[in-house]
Structure formats: structure tokens, C-alpha cells
Amino acid sequence: MGASQSHGLSEKVSQDILEYIARNGLQPGDRLPNEYELAGMLQVGRSSVREAVKLLVSRNVLVVRQGAGTFVSQKRGITEDPLGLSLIPDKHRLARDLMEVRILLEPQIAAAAAQNAAAGEVEQLEQLCAQTEQTIRAGEPHLQKDIEFHTCIARSSKNLVVPQLLPILQKAIEVFIDVTNSSLLEETIATHREITEAIRRRDAAAAHDAMYLHLIYNRRQILTR
Amino acid sequence: MGASQSHGLSEKVSQDILEYIARNGLQPGDRLPNEYELAGMLQVGRSSVREAVKLLVSRNVLVVRQGAGTFVSQKRGITEDPLGLSLIPDKHRLARDLMEVRILLEPQIAAAAAQNAAAGEVEQLEQLCAQTEQTIRAGEPHLQKDIEFHTCIARSSKNLVVPQLLPILQKAIEVFIDVTNSSLLEETIATHREITEAIRRRDAAAAHDAMYLHLIYNRRQILTR
């Protein structure tokens, strides 16, 4: 079998494995059947299964733990720099354009979150507000908490795509936000609370507006650097 | 050296190679210096360069042609299913939510294209309109031309992020558009022309509205299936 045919087969088998995961609702951390069982189920050879698993590991869908088996990855299939943003040379323009995309998406998403958030999600947002404030007051980097906050809002909106997309946009933007700027830090603490409060009250317009103000305040920090 | 240390080093070297590509403005199809030269420039061993190149090949940044060398990939670092959408089991909800993201982004992007498109880009849009119509009249699948049309508008907007993102959203949505529906096909031909015409006239509001109508017409097709 030629290299490209073999590549085509492992791509096909990897699709079958993805369908198996989706159909059976496997979650990050769940274990897959072993190579022997998968080969039987998908009616292909074990070497094809091995190739397909390798492909899915490289795409951060699966993770192999020696001796323990093959598991659905916590990274949910999101690869390192999936949009190829590291290839863009003008990092300042990139940061500005990433903010533009966030400004187009997130206010609407915050409004949807006000309509669709579960009670547990509102509670989680309140905890993330408190944790972000603690992290900032301790003088520690708060980017991770910031990403969790915005991603939790995206999840609460119940849109399936935006929670996958936001962490990518936020990570690529981060280098341009001056994290030592204290007015930005105070703004973050206050506005995260304001957004959370609007979502808790189910006030879609207020959630939209608070998110919008938060993002354009952040954009101004980038543009004036 | 342990496996994780070695992984860390090839990750670091791959970052250096990315910086080299960005700094020198290498474009898809351009050749990289050979392994020996890269090792010298980056002051690491050739085996580290080899590992880093492998990593960047798996991320669709580079492509190795046996005997010819290592080149910047035409795929521009965009990996297969980079948002992990194939892991989402409810494909109907997924298609709806992808359309929602497109509706939030693309009308504004079409307005920006009306302001920023170069003359050559307007010409390219006109060609893509003609090619899409030919493809449809020939009864052939026009998804590829459709993606090229929307991506060309995104490029014309001069936003750096949206052209990387749109093909991913469009490919994932495609399976839900009933391509045999003739009213949808006629709508595509007419509205693509209308959007192009508005961009040619530099009429941002008309480009915005035509794109908006195009996308909500498409969304209705998905929702009623």
C-alpha cells in the first residue's frame, strides 16, 4: 500500500473513532476500548487503529497513557495555535484584529448567557469574579482566570462554538495587554462583577452593554501602546 | 535528557522557526534553510531541528518534500478540525451555532471589505461570482467556491483573524445545507453578486445588509431541515 493510501485509511479510521466518541458521549478523561476491541468494532487491522490513534493524539483529541490505555484528551481536540496566528508577523495589528472579533462576538454572547445560564453557571461566574480579584490583589498573573471567566460566559450562552474559540483568541491577545496597568486591573474586577450581576438578573441588554464596555476599554489599552 | 525535556526543547525550537518565518516574511510555498543551516542559525543540534520540523509539519505549518527541502505549507498552519468540532455529538445544534457565529461576524466584515478592498480583490470577487454560477449551472458542488468567496471578502476587510477562521466555520456547516435546493442555489448566485456590487461601490451599509440577508436565508434552510 502506498504512503498516501495508508494516510487515507488512517484518516478514515480516525473519523470512525471520532464518531464512536460522539455517539457514545465520551467525555474528556474517559477511556477508549483497547486497540484490539477498536479493530474489531471498526473492522480494520490493529496497525490502522494504531495509526489513527497517533493522528488523533497529534490533534489533541486523544491522549495515550502508557500501561493505562487511550483516553479522550482534556484539550478537547483544540490544537496549539489552531488558527496559525503565530505565522502572522505584525503582532500589534493581530492583537487589534483579535479584539475586533471579540467585540463582534462577546456582547451578543453575554446577552445570550443572561437568557440561558444555569443556576450553577451563575454561581461559577461569581466564584471566578472572586478568584480573579484575589489573584490580582496578590499581584499574580490573572490571565488564566480571565479566560475561564469569558469561557464560562460563552458556555452559559449555550452556543457550542464560541467556548471552543474564545480561549484561542484570548491567549493570542494576551501579550499586548499591559498587565501592570492598575486602572485596567480595577476595571477588570469591577466590570466582571457587573457582567455577572446582569447575567444573574437575566438582564440581556445590561449584560451586552457591560461586556461591550469591558472590551472596548481593553481595546483602548492595546491601541495606545 | 528525559522525554518531557526533549519535548520542551523541540517546542522551543519550533517557536524559533516560526519567528524566523514571520521575521523574514516567508509565504506559503517558500523554502526554508536546510537542517544544517537552521541548526547553525538557532544554535541547536540537527536532531532538535528535525524534531521541531516534525512538530510543525503535524501542525500544518511546514511541509517536507523528499529531495526538494522543507517549505511553508499552503495550509497556513490551520490544522484539520482545529476547534475540535467533530467531538460535538449534536450536529444540528452545531450547524445552527456556527451560523450564529457567522451572522455575528460576516456582515461587519463585509462592511469593512467595502471600505478596504483593493481593486484586485474586487476583481477576484467578481471572478468568484462567475465561477460559482458556472459550477452551480453545471450541477457540480460549489462549496469550495463558496468558501473562497467568503474568505476573499474576509481578506479584503484586512482583518487578519477572520480569513483564518471562516473556512473552518464554513466547512463544518456544509453538511447541513441542502445543496440540491434550487431556490438556495439561485439565492447564492444573486446575493453573491449583490454583495460584490456593494463592495465595488464602496457602500459599506449595503454590503453589510446583503451579507446579513444572505446568511439568515441560509440559516432558515438549516433550521427547517
UniProtKB/TrEMBL annotation, chains A, B:
Q: Which InterPro entries match?
A: GntR_C, TF_FadR/GntR_C, Tscrpt_reg_HTH_GntR, WH-like_DNA-bd_sf, WH_DNA-bd_sf
Q: Which PROSITE patterns match?
A: HTH_GNTR
User: Keyword Transcription, does the record have it?
Assistant: yes
Q: Which SUPFAM superfamilies does UniProt cross-reference here? A: GntR ligand-binding domain-like (SSF48008), Winged helix' DNA-binding domain (SSF46785)
One GO MF term attached to the UniProt entry? DNA-binding transcription factor activity
Name all HTH gntR-type domain ranges: 7-75
Q: Which CDD domains match?
A: WHTH_GntR
What's the superkingdom here? Bacteria
Keywords from the UniProt entry: DNA-binding, Transcription, Transcription regulation
PANTHER family in the record: TRANSCRIPTIONAL REGULATOR, GNTR FAMILY, UXU OPERON TRANSCRIPTIONAL REGULATOR
**What is this protein called in UniProt?**
FadR family transcriptional regulator
Q: What is the source species?
A: Candidatus Gallacutalibacter pullicola
Lineage, opening ranks: Bacteria, Bacillati, Bacillota, Clostridia, Eubacteriales
